From TrEMBL:
The keyword Isomerase applies. SMART domains: CM_2. It comes from Saccharopolyspora oryzae. Residues 5-95 form the Chorismate mutase domain. Gene3D superfamilies: Chorismate mutase (1.20.59.10). This is Chorismate mutase. InterPro entries: Chorismate_II_sf, Chorismate_mutase-related, CM_dom_sf, CM_II_prokaryot. Keywords: Isomerase. Transmembrane segments: none annotated.
Amino acid sequence: MADSGDSYADLAEVRAAIDDLDADLVELLVRRQRLVRAAGTFKRTDLEVQAPDRAAAVVATAAARAEEAGGSGELIGDIYRAMVDSFIAYERRNVSSAPPSTPPAPND
């Protein structure tokens, strides 16, 4: 199937191409999930799980790569931020032995 938006015969063909791409994306996301699980075994604190500098770098890199490829850095950055946040939540629930952060007690 074609990759260019102007070479499709009809909407059904475009949707079929999207479905094929989605199948590839799911496989890649499952691979990423396995890597997140492996990384989580090395983390001992919630800050290591959150890794804010690493998360920001991953999002920025994805946005820059999207721009270089002719896509929207803003859109891809938004998607990556949501993905990274989801993987952090997954890691907190299922992988890391780090205790969750507790919010500071309010001052009286």
